């Protein structure tokens, strides 16, 4: 029991530090939303707002109040996403050295049953090898340790989107973006498919 409590305190402290770094340029309500949505997603395991609200640890407020607060922030027109995206590199940027492997992978988000999602494209499902509806995904990871690569960029895209430049320009733009952030530190690692 003591080990579990110590582990939970350690995780809680690390999570608090991560959220503090990520949300340092946010307003107080946006910081609360970042904390609640992140904790709700971790505890629930699904990005379903109603279930996330149920799993929030703060039981002093009613479930409907928590649900309304999460939904209001999701539909609010704000620059929340841009602020969080701008702050995220500060979390991992200090760990990138000149010899840090930066792994590039092109993957897919398969949506075989989807019919009405915006700009659905035909992708090869990596699990089954079949052509299905879905989106392409550019993934870049920094290999800081052998077991835990840190995701530095996960960017979905579709070649069905209007004015889409195509797959190669999107991949090259992602690589240039990361190497601009790191001041050209790191070593790009790709598989034979590129």
From TrEMBL:
<protein>
    <recommendedName>
        <fullName>Transposase IS701-like DDE domain-containing protein</fullName>
    </recommendedName>
</protein>
């Amino acid at each position: 029991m003591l080990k579990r409590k110590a582990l939970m305190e350690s995780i809680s402290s690390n999570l608090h530090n991560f959220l503090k770094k990520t949300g340092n340029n946010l307003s107080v309500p946006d910081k609360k939303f970042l904390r609640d949505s992140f904790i709700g997603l971790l505890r629930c395991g699904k990005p379903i707002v109603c279930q996330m609200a149920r799993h929030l640890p703060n039981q002093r407020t009613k479930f409907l109040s928590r649900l309304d607060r999460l939904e209001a922030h999701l539909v609010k027109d704000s620059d929340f996403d841009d602020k969080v995206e701008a702050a995220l590199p500060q979390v991992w940027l200090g760990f990138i050295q000149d010899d840090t492997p930066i792994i590039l992978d092109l993957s897919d988000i398969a949506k075989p049953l989807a019919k009405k999602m915006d700009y659905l494209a035909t992708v090869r499902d990596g699990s089954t090898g079949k052509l299905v509806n879905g989106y392409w995904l550019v993934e870049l990871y920094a290999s800081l340790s052998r077991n835990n690569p840190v995701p530095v960029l996960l960017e979905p895209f579709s070649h069905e989107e209007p004015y889409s430049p195509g797959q190669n320009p999107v991949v090259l733009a992602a690589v240039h973006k990361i190497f601009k952030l790191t001041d050209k530190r790191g070593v790009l690692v790709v598989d034979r498919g590129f």
